[in-house]
Predict the structure of ATP-binding cassette domain-containing protein.
Amino acid sequence: MSLFSRRADRHRDEETGRAADARPDPLGPEGEVGDGPETRPGDEPTGAPRAGVPAPRTEGGAGGDGRDGGQGTDRGLDGEPVTGNAPPPPDNVVVELRDVYKSFGPKEILKGVNLAVERGTSAVVLGGSGTGKSVLTKHVVGLLTPTAGEVWVLGDRVDLLDQDQLDRKRTRLGYLFQGGALFDSMTVYENMRFFLDRLTTLDRGEKDDLIDESLEDVNLPETLHQYPAELSGGQKKRVGLARTLILRPDIILYDEPTTGLDPVSVRVVSELIVQLRDTRGISSIAITHDLLAAEIITDQAHFLSEGRIVANGTLQEVRRSDNPVVEEFFKGTEAYGAA
Ligand SMILES: Nc1ncnc2c1ncn2[C@@H]1O[C@H](COP(=O)(O)OP(=O)(O)OP(=O)(O)O)[C@@H](O)[C@H]1O
Ligand SMILES: [Mg+2]
């Protein structure tokens, strides 16, 4: 039996009933407060949505085998795609960056990034530290806007959306931050409750059920009343993932989901990501330095260097690239990747 079947059933019910309550903004309290785990409730983003959350669009056909993730019917916001008159990507492409440039002052970070993610697949972005991988993914959730270029997500150009449209688009996206971003002063339960309290109008019993179920999804029900400091690195990542999952996103962005973990935990977290793809049809973009994680997760790999995608394809294809930076990267990670 699928690990997620119970929740999937529950959510199908919600889609006909209380779906508006069950699909709040996925960025949640950590959405615009940075990557660090030291976030506190008082640090909430100013632009975050409130309880009573933006209503999602109806998802006819959702709840099938999960592979589709219910994304097939809703192109554009309010029925009118925000395209800026550019031709949208084909239906099977859920995220596309077209010739994206990003500068911070004189610092050019992205210099013409092109990248597409097909529905129900896991894309992995590889590259050295400081090359712009996090910057790239922040464009997908609208935390950054490009200096030039187009950022397409589920049929709309997020670089052109206003705040209200962006809030609604974000109900479809989950973002697992590099640091996990749990509130240190709160237990796991309180962290998740805080998230749901702010973003939904579900009653207490429903919230508690969602919390229990989503911790079961990541096989950590026993951590409910523990504080983040009492959890291992891998457990923290999985709790962060549980909190992202509670909002039932169609696309999840994982920023270094396995960094700092031992190989066993790397495998557990990576296999969880694959399971989400296979049982829920969640499309994803994962940033990683970790070759073991990449080997487990990757459908399509994209190697970022000097502001551009210099190699893409399967992991094997990227590994065979003769770009010297790519060669160096794989040489540096070979020993671990082969473990
Ligand atoms: N908001 C910002 N303002 C100015 N510079 C920024 C901002 N965000 C990122 N940068 C710069 O962009 C560059 C790329 O940063 P980014 O965080 O995307 O790197 P990364 O590839 O994710 O690195 P790592 O693997 O270490 O996480 C860095 O030089 C960083 O200082
Ligand atoms: Mg980063």
Summary: Residues 263-280 form the longest helix (18 residues). The two ends are 31 Å apart (CA to CA). The chain has one domain: 5-337.
